[in-house]
Amino acid sequence: MEGPPNALSEAKAKDLLRKRGILTTRYVLPRRDQLGSLPLEYPLAVKVSSSKVLHKTEVGGVFLDVSTPEELVMRYDQIRAKFPDAEVLVESMEPKGPEVIIGLLRDKDFGLCVMFGMGGVMAELYKDVSFRKLPISRKDAEEMLEESKASAFFEGFRGFVADREATLDLLQEVSRMGTDMKGLEQLDLNPVILREKGYVVVDAKIVLEGA
After folding, report:
1. CA 89: distance to chain centroid?
2. What is the pTM of this model?
């Protein structure tokens, strides 16, 4: 399944996020001869990184929990063979944690809106998403957290308390991206893994106007 023509690859999307101070996974786009000296720790995730492939899992473009150098080379070669025009992104696997989705979608009536809700596979299962028209205030961001089932993560769910302030900062920064960036049509951060201190964006999709 190809992505829209004005989409960014995952690497370029994360580059853009990191320039704005948004926390993402540590990733590299290595050549094959660099696989033995990556500045990353196992286990690794190996992904196709292409503006033409946004739904990577559906087309066999993602390998998770790659645990040895031999498997890394094998998975790298598999992606290069299947997607010869694409880059290969390698990143360290993130420890598991509560997952949320944060993004921007264009509504035909209200224009660009920011969204927040349960992430990962829970996003489709619960369809638990809160929306606000841009730009949003701190109070708007707080209300979005409270409206979602994910609010439990910030209140001591099973002994875990997610970083509420960092998540509010992220929501507001995504809102600013929507107002600052001309031609931004869609942004999808899913999953964002919440931490007791901070968070980490594991996957990112960005689509520009005209796609």
Report:
1. 14
2. 0.91
pLDDT value of position 46:
98
**Domains assigned to the chain:** 26-92 (3.30.1490.20), 99-208 (3.30.470.20)
Q: Which of 57, 22, 26, 59 is nearest to 44 (CA)?
A: 26
111 backbone φψ class: left, alpha, beta (φ>0; ψ -120 to 50): left
pLDDT, one tens digit per residue, over 30-76 is 999 999 999 999 999 999 999 998 889 889 999 999 999 999 999 99
For residue 129, what is the enclosing H or E element? strand 129-133
Closest listed residue to residue 88, CA positions, set 15, 31, 152? 31
137 and 155 Cβ atoms separated by less than 8 Å = no
Measured from the Cβ of residue 44, the count of other Cβ atoms closer than 10 Å reads 26
Our CA dihedral for 25, 17, 11, 128, rounded to 10 degrees, sits at 70
Task: Report d(CA 150, CA 183) in Å as an integer.
Answer: 30
| CB of 104 closer than 8 Å to CB of 186 | yes
CA distance 3 to 207: 9
Q: Which DSSP letter does residue 68 get?
A: S
Give the tens place of pLDDT for each residue, 64-119. Answer: 999 999 999 999 999 999 999 999 999 999 999 999 999 999 988 999 999 999 98
Encoded tokens for 122: 């829970």
Report the Cα 197 to chain-centroid distance in Å. Answer: 18
